Batch of 2 targets.
Target 1
Amino acid sequence: MSPAHKNKIAIIEPSPVIRQGMKTLLEESSAFVVTGIYNDLQSFQKENKSFDIILINPAIINFHKQFAVRDLFSDDSEIVIAAILYGYVDRETLAGFDGVLNIYDDGIKMGKKLQHIARTIVKQDRNDNIDLSDREKEILVSVAKGLTNKEIADKHFISIHTVISHRKNIARKTGIKTVSGLTIYAVFNNLVSQDDLQ
Amino acid sequence: MNHRLFSEKMKVADLVLANYRLLFVFPCFGLGLELGESTVKQICEKRGISTTLFLLVCNLYTFDDYCPDTKTFSQIPLADLMNYLKNAHKDYLNNRMPSVIARILDLVDCSHIKHGEMLMRFCEKYKQEVIAHFAYEEEVVFPYIQSLLEGEKSNTYKIKEYESNHSNIDVALNDLKNIIIKYLPSEYTMEKCRDALIDLFLFEFDLSKHAILEDQILIALVEQIEK
């Protein structure tokens, strides 16, 4: 493989030892070349170079949790974003990444994993807003009023599957999962008045 | 990876200095302060606490990715673990939860907000949920494990049932955190919000570690006996 076909990798990781170690290990494979090494998101954004793969420590992302991981990077949806893992990270955070690289793996395994992630990346709809959509607000009001998924589906002429998917998005966007919590959200945000709730 | 974990030769005081959240663990072992220069081994032997269990809990509380090795795992005394969990339940019900709820009541009281009673109702509902959760463990699960330890085999109940029914009691706390941080009307005072939040964070942390002890340690130990 000629150098021109190597996947260009950026590593964003606060620990110099891990940064340099990953670069060394990944470059054992002819498929990769590390062309950018950054200790935080700011220095990465400042340089504004283009990459095929971004490896980033999820701890960095945690400070920006209200954004989907992908929104932190350019709108190039071809780019593969993988998490560098060396401790426990909750599943919700990891879900935002295309894959995970474990630093306890050796170079060969890491390279294979990364190629696998790059191949299997599924393009999803990433035009995700942070705020609730009007539709989601309507569904939320129904949830707050104590309607079941079936009742909500009938009321809004949608399938139960769609209701569930709306509810998942509502929980993800608001960070609130219980019905009583969502009710409080709806009242505080004036989506429903307390008198409408029995 | 083990070089950075707590070990029996360390001073107990140093453990607390390294991680103040252990202050919530010690009472569940019946351990107070006035620790002096005593090591983990010395204190555990003096107080009749299992050193393995004590270190397990302290490490679990301190190192996010900690998972006991097979040797440690095989040495965990099941009866002592159950006893620890029971003490923790008592502490959560008698001290921690009332304190969280009092903070929120304080928050609601200090400003005459129209939605205050909604928050209180939320807390009350949560309290009932936690009480029921612990009651199931103490009335069904622990007696079952106790009878297993005494050599009885049950054909009707298996720990798998507990595993599949074990709900997350920290979800509602997380909701409360989100509501206070993101959506509470700004007329609530920052100081009161902060006090309530810090209590919430600490309690949620304890419950998450408690859940690991139950889901990953207790259940695995019981499954071994059932086989």
Target 2
Amino acid sequence: MSDTEFSNSTGPTAQDDFEPVSVFEDGEMDLRPGADNCYKCSVCDTTCPVAEVDDDFPGPKFQGPEQWRLKRKEDVEIDDSIMSCSNCMRCDDACPSGVPLSQMHNTARGAYVDEQMTKLSREYVRNRILANYGTLARLGSAVPRLTNFVMGNSLVQTVNEKLLGITAERDFPEFATETFREWWAERGGPRVRSEDKRVAYFHGCYSNYNTPEVGKAMVRVFEAFGYEVVVPRQRCSGTPMFANGMLDDAERAASVNVSELSDLLEEGYDVIASCTSCSMSLRQEYPELFQLSGIEEVAANTYESLEYLRIHEDLDGELADASVDEQAFAYHAPCHARNQGLDRQAVELFREVDGVEMEDVGDSCSGISGTYGWKEEKYETSMKIGEDMFEHMDDAAGEVGMTECPTCSMQMEHGTGYEIEHPLQLLDDALC
Amino acid sequence: MPIRDDVVVVGGGLAGSMAALSAAESGAQVRLISHKKSTLRQASGLVDVLGAVNGDAPVSDPFAAVDQLPDKHPYRVVGVGGIREGLRRFDDVVGDRYRGAHTDRNALVVTHGGTVKPTARYPVSVAPGLASAEEDTLLVGFRGLTDFDAGAAADHLEAAGVPFDVDGSTVDFPIQFRDDARTTRFARALDKDQKDVRARLADAVVAELDAHDRVGFPAMLGDDHEPEVREFLEGRLSATVFQIPTGPPSLLGMQLEDLLIDALERAEVRLSTGNPAVGYETDEGELTAVTVDRRGRDVPYYADEFVLATGGLVGKGIDSDRESVVEPLFGCHVPHPADRYEWSEAEAFGDHAFARFGVVPDDDLRPTDADGDVHFRNLRAAGGVLGGADVAREKSAAGVSISTGTYAGRRAGEETVR
């Protein structure tokens, strides 16, 4: 993939005819300014959840700017520790100097998988399967009851672990008996039509196959505010593919998504996602990693669902008179929500609602980071990272968890046994 | 108007946090907008108020020295009363975690470079190491922790003429971390007493102790359980143990950040972190909103009063290119010599013009334009973005942030509830 390879054409001999614009081959990303911006304060290393529990992990500063510089030398390979980065992207948020750390990690991981990982290895095959969860889910949810039965079988789990390296510690997420899209079609699509209030829902894989109740809540809430909701054809946002260095897969999915969403933008729709990793991917990783027609516009017009309502509607006002059945929630802000500046909005929004007690369970990472915590060799790290969050959830008054991210939600449930809701579901209860 | 508060503070460092707390005190609903994690992670965690005037250090009583500062200095705007008010509020935030409030006089804190820094407030764990105490001192560094060279620091201190014997010793930390490990890893190991590390550390140091009265370590003796670790080491070593503030990533800076965030949460300040403020909206010459770039989309945050606390040249609240120096958010006037070669001096630690670049406040901390007129009636500035102070040379960065932040926040709050 030309735009993720590191160029070897900038050795010292090329210095004489140095021209800033032509150093990098067509379409290749120039990460040099980013690397040069790093003044090695190492604050990123102190916010990395993996480095915190895994002493062998060199941390984001090495994975990003330092490794990028090392790679300028022709015979230097990418260190295999890049596969231990969970792509939580917290380092982006920590850097005071604007170094595009996660972009550097994504490109390094992509290059590592392309050039250094054996395609027949168990790790590659397993990662490819995990990265393409959407495909797996499509097959599995065609016969949800059978799949749930099979995947819930401990023998199958053991085989998964031994054969594929997918941890047997976790219960496979259950598939809904009716997907969100099936529900949407059954319902006959949108019930509200509007010329000026239009949103296109990017539900992602998880709300479609596993938690359609989140998607349904989204539709009810937005329709209550008078929005016309459409549900475009879509593929995986690419998040698990970036995290596994499968950039070709991600680009294929992105090209479908960007093309479908671009058409809708032209008709006056904004893009809404209920999963914060999906919105993160469309907003930041797409334009950072791919060059597709319309990708910048899609990025600029994508929002997280609550964020969108907060900007365009008087949510505070609507919620002032709302009340719900008394419930205390232990809220966890996903790392990817944090990086979009959304980490406090749910607490801020619901704090005043009658009947709701909302407690933030701290700023630690949940540790699952999408597919990361599903890997047999990463499971322990994942649970160690999550320890802080589990403890805080235990201490919190509520015994219902709340988060925007589907995999954080799995981890919260796995670590505490709590039922986990999405903020949209509470909004649905309060307003619809 | 969906996202609306009474006061919006832009900038999540020390000045912005103090401004938000002080505005919230008046009963206003306050939002604090910051782009990235707090820059306090880069800071020593010390609070200097005024350590040097005209290059002469150390100043013993910072309050008495304020009137020797230039007229345009931010301290001259808020006055000694403003500095005291800021420190009072700071003392409320940090409670018993800091020392120094008992006196007006500067304490002399030992730094990791082996210099002595005149300081008004300092963390409890730093207090036993003050250079004014005549106790023979052993500084301990660790192989592999390149941020602190105990031998060099001890030599520097001796050369500076401290009134006690000081030696440096470098030992192996009982747990071998990978190369380039950060202070936070050492701290975590001590916090959790991994592999009996506290006792083993004490054993490693006992061999070097040689009748010193006190032992200084770089600030890494634990995070949540630092008092416990220090107490344990003091027991085993039969000597006073203190911490020496470090460069970034600074544990003492992070702990101060935590104290401030706790205080902000208690004050019900709304925190919006992760996206940069990029512009503003006005109505009839008044500021009505600051716009924040949320991944390509400018979203307005409405309020009645605003505080600009985006930092100086390093914090990016002031920006420069080869031609000019600007305040990038509101375009406030930043006076600077037209000739770029007059911005700096040849000497590295000289009296640089660039160090004093910043916005020019009126007598209510409102940025003014080139004619001296107020930029916006409802915009005040605090901290590093203010010009007129060379905070690095004067050793006044924290004091300027605390006092102007407190003042600007209080005034913003007063205006909204008026």
